[in-house]
Amino acid sequence: MYNIRVNIKNIFNKTADFFDPHRRGPLFTHYGIVGIIFIAAVSFIFYRLVSSVSSTTFGWLITWLSIGIHEFGHKLFAAISGRNEFWTICGGTFLEIAVPLAALFFFQRKGSEIQADICLFLLAVAYKSIGFYTGISLYVGEIMIVNAADGANSVPDWDYMHRWFGTEGKEYYMQQFFYIMSALTTALGFWLLIAHIYRWVKSDVNMNEEP
Q: Which residue ranges make up each domain of the chain?
């Protein structure tokens, strides 16, 4: 049993050394009961904002913030895959998540935690955008779908992707999953940003240097 615990600890440390060598990311931040309540409350508020039908202005604004990356993803994966249908269609969603994640890991490895926190907000935007389009069929007749490659009212990516991933008929639940992920990521980003700014103010250190 002792050897198993040691091996698990070694695996965790090696993984942390790769993704967060400065130990300043989410796994090494103190939360406590206040942090847990804060994240739960902010998650609930933002979930209501992104999922509420009445908050269309807010929802559409953050959805469009990452649409350029999404559309570029179609072009990029089409070129890489030789216009393979699966990769061309899924490429938009993949890149939409990959860009903020890559930026997050880049800044965490540098020890630039505030920049990494901002990337969490960008990831939350991507989750909101993806969530909207996973449930696009729920809005038939209510909105116009715009696709930079195929023009207005083209077939949505997720009409294909739901069939490929076996989630057809579960559009509402998929949408809520991504909305919840967006809300949680937003709340986590806020807590980490507050914690890191507080550390910076109290310690009077350069946030991009070793403590």
A: 57-202
How confident is the model at residue 152, as a pLDDT? 43
CA distance 198 to 62: 27
102, 123 contact by CB (below 8 A)? no
Contacts with 58 (C-beta within 8 Å, 6 or more apart), sequence order: 49, 50
Instruction: Give rounded-to-5 percent helix, strand, coil for the chain.
Output: 75, 0, 20
| Best CA proximity match to 188, nearest among 38, 60, 83 | 38
Pick from 115, 132, 110, 109: which is nearest to 61 by CA?
A: 132
Question: pLDDT tens across 40-73, in order?
Answer: 999 999 998 888 765 555 556 666 667 888 889 9
- pTM, to two decimals: 0.83
* pLDDT tops 60 at residue 151: no
Strand partners, 152: 146
Token pair of 204 as six digits? 């009077």
CA separation (Å) from 197 to 101, 115, 186, 210? 21, 11, 16, 16
